[in-house]
Write a structure and sequence with these properties.
Layout lengths: L1 E2 L16 H4 L9 H4 L11 E2 L49 H30 L2 E9 L14 E4 L8 H12 L5 E3 L7 H6 L6 E9 L13 H22 L2
Amino acid sequence: MSVPHSGTEFPVELQPHYCPELAAQPDDTDWFVHDLYSFTSDLGITTIHARYSRWVIDLNRDSENKALYNDGRIITGLTPSTDFFGNEIYSDGKFVPDGEETERRLEIYYQPYYRKIESLLNERVDEFGQALLWDAHSIRRFVPTINPEPFPDLILGDNDEKSADKEIIDIALNGLKSSKYQVNHNLPFKGGQITRFFGRPEMKIHALQLEMAKTLYMDDDELNFNEQRANRIRKVLRPVFENLIAYLTK
């Protein structure tokens, strides 16, 4: 399991450059997602999650900053200068990363994350013959700069069914749809760079992304973790993982 957007820290050398009131609570964070999925360790699932904010470098964007979508939506890039709502995150425009600074951040913060995932997946393929990467995300219920309507509860992404075998996709999708939650498939998100980069079903490496509305496990203000709500969605997620594990290990 990968959780690339739950990081909230800023490197010491970069921290003074961000607007302090925004950096104190970076709004685009997938708050508490690694806590939500803490139960997966009981199932033998290894989790890797980001330490630093996506405002330092976005681990789920193309390393060459190529757009993930070309439908006119506003979506932040590899080294964003604004949040999802267009607010400038740097205290001075001169601190916005140039090419050299972007390359430095790629080397120090981005590539190690990818190398670790690659290593973990290869270990599992060597041991079991195949592997599945689950990329876990959350988002505000309504972000008008990205989508004109509120987001559904859950969005399963698999790069238009190219990042995983259909049997695996169907197990995940049917498990999610067995709940009371509204579930979309590849709309409006079909998986970011992590899903697209690592999902190589022809090599027995599968990747899925699950995006969920923050109100499924946080309060209505999307600020605080809500244990009762979290436990409700966990009761949906756990059987999905159990079924996926059963299929992968049969």
